[in-house]
Amino acid sequence: MAYAKTRLMYVSLVVLGALCLYFSMYGLAPFKDEPFVFKKERGTFLQLPDINCRQEPPFLVLLVTSSHEQMFARTVIRNTWGKEKNVSGKRIKTFFLLGATASKDLSKVVAQESQRHRDIIQKDFTDAYFNLTLKTMMGIEWVHRFCPQAAFVMKTDSDMFVNIDYLTELLLKKNRTTRFFTGFLKLNEFPIRDKHNKWFVSKYEYPWERYPPFCSGTGYVFSSDVASQVYHVSDSVPFIKLEDVFVGLCLEKLKIGLEELHSEQTFFPNGLAFSTCRFKKIVACHFVKPRNMLSYWQALENSLEEECPAV
Ligand SMILES: *[C@@H]1O[C@H](CO)[C@@H](O)[C@H](O)[C@H]1NC(C)=O
Ligand SMILES: *[C@@H]1O[C@H](CO)[C@@H](O)[C@H](O)[C@H]1NC(C)=O
Ligand SMILES: *[C@@H]1O[C@H](CO)[C@@H](O)[C@H](O)[C@H]1NC(C)=O
């Protein structure tokens, strides 16, 4: 009898011990990896563009998120709205943001492209869709470290049409120099808790009920001082893989409010049917395929003198 009792106790202890070990491992694992904090000093630059911002400060720097495979989209942007140009005597420069890939061939091609065009900013994090926050923060770090002399920065994507002339005109009219942030304002957004949605965010990733005010990641514009300020607070706000929400969290912490650039809508994150007169008065339009980019851009360039009916 005594022997059976001892054995039962022994087995219970072993089971209890195993359970403790299991829960401590799985319960503590997330803290071991610290996934919730952005490490701002992490990673090294693999490619840097050829620009001396101190000598020739640009008025506007465009940072375009891109991936290795999107070579054609980059070529089209370089030949259309991303062309280096001066608008009202203001210098505009476009750069592409890339991460790193395991493919040796693609890495080589991108390194060659970078040598040739000198317009690629690349760091050694894995280039993946849900690493967009790292990509955006690389661009912000680059402005902070290498180009704080720029007056304004726009972060946008490679499937966007950007009307540089109108953006410059509106920025000059707005006459703001610091703590300015604009785009398509999203003031009342909630995390999507449906597991099948592309934008699903678990309560574990983001436990709060609503997002801070932010601007659609398809295209937002800010005075360059915001880059340094966002960079400085980026490791003290919760990390989230949605880059636009992450920047929103930084802005909330900095108490930088979002502002409209114009009384009319100028940012179109959901796309807009093309017409020359319509596109003369917009800043950014989403879902523009590379093959349409060139024809839109040429139509706009050819219609500079053309009168449009007043809206
Ligand atoms: C823009 O102006 C600067 C000097 O003001 C000049 O060096 C540069 O070549 C111009 N760029 C273009 C594309 O005209
Ligand atoms: C993002 O990049 C980091 C650093 O290279 C990598 O460890 C991580 O797996 C990447 N995330 C995704 C979703 O691929
Ligand atoms: C721009 O703002 C500054 C003050 O911030 C003011 O002195 C200047 O007159 C303004 N310029 C225009 C064109 O409104």
How would you characterize this protein structure?
The protein has helices spanning about 1-35, 70-80, 105-115, 130-145, 165-175, 225-235, 245-255, 275-280, 290-300, and strands spanning about 45, 60-65, 85, 90-100, 120-125, 150-155, 160, 180-185, 215-225, 265-270, 285. It has about 300 residues and is of the alpha/beta class. It has a single domain (about 45-305), classed as Spore Coat Polysaccharide Biosynthesis Protein SpsA, Chain A (Alpha-Beta Complex), CATH 3.90.550.50. Strands 1, 2, 3, 4, 5, 6, 8 and 9 form an 8-stranded mixed beta sheet that branches. A hairpin with a 2-residue loop joins strand 3 (about 85) and strand 4 (about 90-100). Helix 2 (about 70-80) runs parallel beside helix 9, helix 4 packs across helix 6 and helix 4 packs across helix 7. It is globular and about 100 Å long. The model is unreliable at about 25-35 (pLDDT under 50). One 2-acetamido-2-deoxy-beta-D-glucopyranose (NAG) binds near residues 126, 130 and 131.
